[in-house]
Amino acid sequence: MARIVMKFGGTSVGDIDRIKNVAKRVKREVEAGNEVAVVVSAMSGVTNQLVDWCKQMAPLHDQKEYDTVVATGEQVTTGLLAIGLQELGLKARSWTGWQVPIRTDSTHGKARIDSIDTPEMLADMAEGVVAVVAGFQGIAPGNRIATLGRGGSDTSAVALAAALKADRCDIYTDVDGVYTTDPRIVTKAKKLDKITYEEMLELASVGAKVLQTRSVEMAMKHHVRVQVLSSFVDAPGTLVCDEDEIVEKELVSGIAYSRDEAKITLVRVSDRPGVAAAIFGPLAEAAVNVDMIVQNVSEDGKSTDLTFTVGRADLDRARKVIEDHKATLAYEGLICDANVVKVSVVGVGMRSHAGIAQKMFQTLASEGINIQVISTSEIKISVLIEEKYTELALRALHTAYGLDAA
Ligand code: ASP
Ligand code: MG
Hints:
Elements: E1 3-8, H1 16-31, E2 35-40, H2 46-57, H3 63-70, H4 72-87, E3 91-95, E4 102-104, E5 113-116, H5 119-126, E6 129-134, E7 137-140, E8 144-147, H6 153-163, E9 168-173, E10 194-196, H7 197-205, H8 213-222, E11 226-230, E12 238-241, E13 254-258, E14 261-270, H9 275-285, E15 290-295, E16 303-311, H10 315-324, H11 326-329, E17 333-337, E18 340-346, H12 356-366, E19 373-377, E20 380-386, H13 390-400
Parallel strand pairs: 1-2, 1-9, 2-6, 3-6, 9-11, 10-12
Antiparallel strand pairs: 4-5, 7-8, 11-12, 13-18, 14-16, 14-17, 15-16, 18-20, 19-20
Helix pairs in contact: 1-4, 6-8, 7-8, 12-13
Bound molecules: aspartic acid and magnesium ion.
Magnesium ion is lined by residues 9, 151, 154.
């Protein structure tokens, strides 16, 4: 017997038939002798609708009331699934965030989970009652409903698995696992059997949208074994786990891309102490996240070009901040370019093998693709290239690192 948490995303509970289907899946796990808690998202499209209604009421609205509104989507699915399970002859009950309770901090709209009370739920589960828990929500100080940020049900599920000391956390979604790269672009992409937390974290943060980044951080911290699998096909998915569970390590496990990037260059900005602080300080104050940064060596000792990337959605705001500080920054030109994509190769093998970056640069060069900015971490190399080369770069790199399916 095992204790498992099963999580179903929005498309998996998208209509009544699908919820009935989810109930059947859950029943199988119960009949296999497992204690089961299920975490559900809102039916697909529902959260978007709720967010939109808040915006229609007032573009700048109270975040506590926003949470009150958007948390309702998940409550509907918990009740429906509990009914579905009861119809199949199982014992089941629904739990909202405050009923558990799942306690969060007071960062409404993007709250973090502080603790989860489990005794009552565990007692119930031990009696064979399936716990159907609302994802995405909790209760903040002051008894206010809080939500965990878009995609937050993944984090709910992993946090619950950690709190319940579950043997497994199965995340059912509309893809059947984690792939070496986006299979819509590279037809030879392969499904991975296993991937390390660290690799998954890097992939999630650079554009692979399978799991919410925070859920992976949480899984890594608490060593929760997370399986990503499809709710529509009956096949094993991808296990996200500790490195020592993976026997055959690849040098590169995955290649991700993000079109959500824009590049800003300050031409001939003065080269003196304090300039970087003068640029990035105001951007940080305006809540613009800066990602990759390169500063050229100045030729005359007085001025240099400085290039960095920001999220595409922040480009206009970033441009305005820089223009507002033109007097202090004393640059000659400002070039903004949203026509870029960030391509990243990720693999724990990089820690112990040389030449992985070189292979990336060489591969892109032989396709005639110019690299504009490079950044690296211990297990990741990212390059910024022109957006029109996205597909070409992904396919060439996938082949170069030996990832193509046979
Ligand atoms: N329903 C929420 C959203 O759409 C949370 C989730 O599905 O993970 O973002
Ligand atoms: Mg999701």
